[in-house]
Amino acid sequence: MAKTIPMIIANDTILVKEKDSNKFIAFDMPSIEPEVNIPFYHEFAKRISECQYYFKEFIKKEYGKKISKNILAIIIPDDTSALESIFINEFFVNSGACKAVAQMTMGQALSKDDTRYISLSKTKRNVILQYINNNEVMARKLYDCSDYSVKQIHEDAKRLHIDVEYDEAPIFINNLNMNMDDFFELGLVISPKSFMDKIAVIDVEKL
User: Fold this and answer.
1) Half-sphere exposure (CA, 13 Å, Cβ side) for 30?
2) Are 24 and 18 in contact (CB under 8 A)?
3) What is the pTM assigned to this prediction?
4) C-beta of residue 40 within 8 angstroms of C-beta of residue 13
5) Per DSSP, what are the bridge partners of residue 25?
6) Potential cystine with 56: which of 36, 97, 129, 178 (Cβ 3.0-4.6 Å)?
7) In whole angstroms, what is the distance from residue 145 CA to residue 129 CA?
8) Distance of alpha carbon 167 from alpha carbon 67, whole angstroms
């Protein structure tokens, strides 16, 4: 029977749910030196076989040797590009640590109770607004993380999609990376613990 393993690609590391608890442990590839404004996992491309080997051994240590039927439920940053998404899929599927991969943006995972809302998050390169409706990203707007206006982002959130222009939606602030202090007054702050608790029981069918 396939086992779902929830994972989160954070700003600086990959977090993987422990087998027997809802806690997450970090997978850190040795000697990775990220570049400014570039996601750390881009460095995996320079040492693909080595990184895949270490990741597979990491999963085997936590989940046992019978890992070929696993499904990795990967929560990706909100500014992940289509090409980056493909790389993530290929990297993990070809690592031998799973039989399949499912992806969801962090914004899509912020609430299980609200069918429509605005998500706000920040990576090392962007601040990201997303409008989520029925678990789908209906609209997205990116801002350079070194040059943005909190006031402008707040105003943009009100007209990110025609739905929210006429029917206000709640704003959820994703503080997983502990970098959202500028935005705390704009909406409901989702703490790292709250976010990981949601991911620990994620439903792969929704990804």
Assistant:
1) 4
2) yes
3) 0.92
4) yes
5) 16
6) 97
7) 12
8) 46
| Phi, psi (rounded to 5 degrees) for 93 | -60, -40
**Residue 28 CA neighbour count, 13 Å, CB half:** 10
Quote the tokens at residue 40: 């750390």
9-32 pLDDT tens trace: 999 999 999 998 999 999 988 778
Give the CA angle between residues 113, 114, 118 to the nearest 5°: 140
**Which two tokens mark 194?**
């709250």
| pLDDT one-digit tens code per residue, 95-131 | 999 999 999 999 999 998 899 999 999 999 999 999 9
Q: What is the DSSP string of 34-53?
A: PPTTS-GGGGGGGGHHHHHH
> What SS3 class is residue 86?
helix
Closest to 107 measured CA to CA, from 12, 174, 156: 174
Measured CA to CA, the distance from residue 1 to residue 93 in angstroms comes to: 18
